[in-house]
UniProtKB/TrEMBL annotation:
<protein>
    <submittedName>
        <fullName>DUF29 family protein</fullName>
    </submittedName>
</protein>
<dbReference type="InterPro" id="IPR002636">
    <property type="entry name" value="DUF29"/>
</dbReference>
<dbReference type="Pfam" id="PF01724">
    <property type="entry name" value="DUF29"/>
</dbReference>
Length: 150
């Protein structure tokens, strides 16, 4: 078995991320804190936090876009859209369960991503962008409510 001790000749963050992570875990479990690659650990942890924020933003954008499509393109078959609403809400719920401290971010993220969701809804439906409200028309409760379909 390969030794997972971080040293000058040990696994490099830049050369093999998975092996480097294994080494950092080993050092943490062994309480060998002075040998940890602190700079890269901080970078990775910050990246993880940003990844959660990016995922929340992305999923809210898709969810809100589909809410708009359901509300403003009634003559289009909506079964697929309902499936997308369910899936995005499920994944957002999972994300918020894993990171409950992000729950207060749902409103600001929703407000921020609305412009993109509105533009994408216009492009995908062929409807003029002015068809859709200039401001987010849904509450956080509605956005996250599995039973809410406009």
């Amino acid at each position: 078995m390969q030794t997972l001790v971080q040293s000058r000749s040990g696994p490099s963050y830049d050369d093999d991320l998975v092996l480097w992570i294994d080494a950092q875990i080993h050092l943490l479990l062994e309480k060998r804190f002075s040998e940890l690659d602190i700079e890269n650990l901080v970078e990775e942890l910050d990246g993880m936090k940003k990844q959660y924020a990016h995922e929340l933003d992305s999923r809210l954008t898709v969810l809100i876009m589909h809410l708009l499509k359901c509300e403003y393109q009634k003559n289009h078959p909506q079964n697929k859209w309902h499936s997308t609403l369910t899936e995005q809400r499920r994944r957002i719920a999972f994300l918020l369960k894993d990171a409950p401290s992000m729950r207060p971010s749902v409103l600001p993220f929703s407000l921020d991503c609305y412009k993109t969701a509105r533009r994408r809804a216009s492009l995908e439906t062929g409807l003029d962008i002015k068809t859709f409200p200039a401001q987010l028309p849904y509450s956080v409760e509605q956005i996250l409510d599995d039973d809410f379909i406009p």
